Amino acid sequence: MELGKQIRKYRNERTLSQEALADKVYVSRQTVSNWENDKSYPDVKSLVLLSEVFAVSLDQLIKGDVEMMKEQINQTDQKKFGRLSNIFAILFLATLITPIPLEHFLSYAGIAIWVVIFGAALYTAALVEREKKKFDVQTYREILAFTEGKSLSEIEKAREEGKRVYQKAFLVIATGVITLIVTLFFLWILGELPL
Fold first, then answer.
1. Side-chain half-sphere CA neighbours of 108 within 13 A
2. Contact criterion met (CB below 8 Å) for 61 and 51
3. SS3 state at 19
4. Which site in 36, 61, 62, 78 is 20 to 30 Å from 174, CA atoms measured?
5. Which residues of 34-73 are buried (b: 16+ CB within 10 A; e: fewer)?
6. pTM here?
7. Distance CA 65, CA 12 (A)
8. Please, is 88 exposed, middle or buried when counting C-beta atoms within 10 Å of its C-beta (0-12, 13-18, 19+)?
9. Which of 70-74, 116-120, 121-125, 190-194 has the lowest mean pLDDT?
10. What is the number of other CB atoms lying within 10 angstroms of the CB of residue 122?
């Protein structure tokens, strides 16, 4: 973190010892040492007092840390999105591959297992969609840029937003086709649809 370096820099510029600074912000010398060595982080009250003692804004004092925290949050979001996407892909693949073997080998128990897998895939898909809306990424290019930690230019973003209408229409059609296939599959399993 940059804050420890910032505290040390401003303290040295004002020729304050750690103990003198500690007295001014009402903490122990050891606490100041821990801040400077990034072993602990000042609370909000201490940050305000430090900015007053150093005669700098809070923004100047913690600027490097804010940027670093934003980057860490962004990386965390990217990893979470990647994990959710991978889980969804696995569950979707399992939903496609497992119904016939499960029904063949386990009969109605196999169908129940498949329904659970299908439910888990739907739930994961909903989580992925929520993350996509949260970060306003809908098209493939937007998702790819997000997972790589990049952002699209305004022109590229406008182009991608134009594609969303077509993608939503495709999604509706694909959902209808999948629903039809699942319905026919269950009718076939229940013996209502001869093949």
1. 2
2. yes
3. helix
4. 78
5. bbbeeeeebeeebbebbbebbebeeeebbeebeeeeeeee
6. 0.48
7. 20
8. buried
9. 70-74
10. 13
